[in-house]
Amino acid sequence: xxxxxxxxxxxxxxxxxxxxxxxxxxxxxxxxxxxxxxxxxxxxxxxxxxxxxxxxxxxxxxxxxxxxxxxxxxxxxxxxxxxxxxxxxxxxxxxxxxxxxxxxxxxxxxxxxxxxxxxxxxxxxxxxxxxxxxxxxxxxxxxxxxxxxxxxxxxxxxxx
Length: 160
Hints:
By secondary structure, this protein is α+β, with helices and mostly antiparallel strands. The chain has a single domain (10-59, 69-159), classed as P-loop containing nucleotide triphosphate hydrolases (Rossmann fold, 3-Layer(aba) Sandwich), CATH 3.40.50.300. Helices cover 35% and strands 19% of the residues. It has helices at 44-62, 90-99, 117-133, 150-159; strands spanning 10-18, 21-29, 76-81, 104-109. Strand 3, helix 2 (90-99) and strand 4 form a beta-alpha-beta unit. The termini are far apart.
């Protein structure tokens, strides 16, 4: 009997403190995404989870006791794209098109260190073209402040 692969949603919570600012970071992992033989609407559990978190936050905000509200909304999706192929898979396009209205998407070329610099550049350009072609809105990093030093500006530009 064939075992069906499901998309599980696993939460990991990490407390971070940087320069005196405390932050609780919740990482939501989706092991099993895209691994099934039939990936039709396999992105749906992820979309439903994002919607549920927004609805819960809205209900908490609308309630009477708003002092201890936990914000479990999904603010960013780091979407890893396989380096082995010729751009985006149909599953990648379908997933990003389903979620780009709900959450900021940051596409990342997975295992980029296995490619040469020219292969990385070629792959990134191909992915950017496909993202534009399919009308997928991805997160656009903001411009850095004009009073930042030149080294920081160069680093910021390289990241973009």
